[in-house]
Amino acid sequence: MAQENYLFTSESVSEGHPDKICDRISDEIVDLIYREARKTGVDPWTVRVAAETLATTNRVVIAGEVRVPDTLIKKDKEGNVVRDAAGNPMIAPGRFRSAARRAIRDIGYEQDGFHWKKAKIDVLLHAQSADIAQGVDNSADRQGEEGAGDQGIMFGYATNETPELMPAPLYYAHKILELLAKARKSGEGEAGKLGPDAKSQVTVRYEGGMPKDVVSIVLSTQHMDPSWDSKKVRSVVEPYIREAMGDLPIADDCAWHVNPTGKFVIGGPDGDAGLTGRKIVVDTYGGAAPHGGGAFSGKDTTKVDRSAAYASRYLAKNVVAAKLADRCTIQLAYAIGVAQPLSVYVDLHGTGKVDEGVLGEILREVMDLSPTGIRKHLDLNKPIYAKTAAYGHFGRKPGRDGSFSWEKTDLTKALKEAVKARA
After folding, report:
1. Has 413 been annotated as catalytic?
2. In CA terms, which of 160, 182, 247, 347 is 20 to 30 Å from 240?
3. Is 410 an active-site residue?
4. Is 278 one of the annotated active-site residues of the chain?
């Protein structure tokens, strides 16, 4: 029997955290290539991106494999394609550098140790490996649909403990940082003196399996006034934290730890190097559900690390939204070059109103879970990924531009009808 009375903690990091800067830049690369494909009439289905970013003191390095439109290929003065020693077309770095600078400026870095205009940016992107490409492309020739871009396992999760069907500790940890970032960027009062780099952590007390109150709040946030101590920082941020909690009470004896180490002026990559893909639990469910291990940012959607994780969240959310369960975990497993998942596993955590094995079969029926099917169903071949890089890939509102389509609950009717047909 599952625990009903317990404490659970999740953390989030701000868009200015060093690792999140790298996630953002990597996703800006994905968006740039999808946007350029659309602009030049290149089939977006042919786009391939696997971009990784490193950031440190006034230095950004972008590396990885891409397949890009001709307009992003390096050419000599006569207009001829410049090739590397292996004969592969070289990538023109200029627009990738510009995308990185715009992202850093938008986040808010204009500090001596990390400045959007002054940082040196190296672009080391190169053409996608033919050996990797054949796993996707040749599979399409054989099966009529793309094979998975890699092997791996992906998990999706949903719970009815918040309106967004997300775990409460992570949802509120994200919300704190979102509100602080909004106040910082708008220059609202003394919050305008906060810096971009921050981390939050929220501990929620559960009773009867549902959130009851918040018993611990941890926040470390960069500030640009070196005279501020922990007490001063708390006086600035506490109203935003209380607003973020919404209807979830903060316990009278809640433990507050705001900038517990004291002064936090040096932040971002000047204080700690960042890498793409080091905050994958922050990106998903805050530890409340398993994670397959693969990062999302910097990857096009042939990579099932990204697309199948979105699909599994979409399915889990629709299962809970259809009231077939209060909680749902879904695992999908893939092999490189093979289109359909090797397995579909469903766990309803003892809250289900339908047999889990039957539901696993139904999920395959109501949605094509090949990379091609996922990309079509969720309409993923778009420049919609930079905004996913901070504050979680899940629990967000679907946008008019097609972003966060995996958060829609438009599959509930089909699920209910399929379950009814099996009864």
Report:
1. no
2. 160
3. no
4. yes
What pTM, to 2 d.p., does this model score?
0.94
Q: Indicate left, alpha or beta for 201 from its phi (over 0: left) and psi (-120 to 50: alpha).
A: beta
Active-site residue, 264 included:
yes
Going by DSSP bridges, is the β-strand pair 194-207/6-13 parallel, antiparallel, or unpaired? antiparallel
Q: What is the DSSP string of 157-178?
A: EEETTSTTSS-HHHHHHHHHHH
Instruction: Enumerate residues 6+ apart whose C-beta is below 8 A from 209.
Output: 2, 3, 4
Residues with Cβ within 8 Å of 145's Cβ and at least 6 positions away in sequence, in order, are 139, 339, 370, 371, 372, 373
* CB proximity list for 143: less than 8 A, separation 6 or greater: 339
Question: Could you tell me which residues come within 8 angstroms of residue 247 by beta carbon, excluding any fewer than 6 positions away?
Answer: none
pLDDT of residue 143: 47
Catalytic residue flag (residue 273): yes
Is residue 4 flagged as an active site residue? no
What is the structure's pLDDT at 422? 87
Strands 120-127 and 59-67, by their bridges, are: parallel
Which residue is catalytic, options 74, 232, 278, 291?
278
Query: 372: which 2 tokens?
Result: 């091609």
Three-state SS string over 30-43 comes to: HHHHHHHHHHHCCC
**Annotated catalytic residue 182:** no
Comparing CA positions, the residue from 374, 321, 326, 334 lying closest to residue 352 is: 326
Token couple for 73: 């290929």
Give SS3 for 341: coil
Q: Of 299, 306, 313, 382, which is the active-site residue?
A: 299
75 is an active site residue: no
**Annotated active-site residue in 35, 59, 63, 65:** 65
What is residue 423's predicted lDDT score, i.e. its pLDDT? 78
Q: How far apart are CA 273 and CA 56, in angstroms?
A: 5
Give the sheet arrangement for strand 6-13, strand by strand: 6-13, 194-207, 210-223, 250-258
Place of tokens 């903690």: 9
CA distances from 13 to 150, 178, 392 (A): 28, 10, 10
* Residue in 48, 101, 279, 377 annotated catalytic: 279
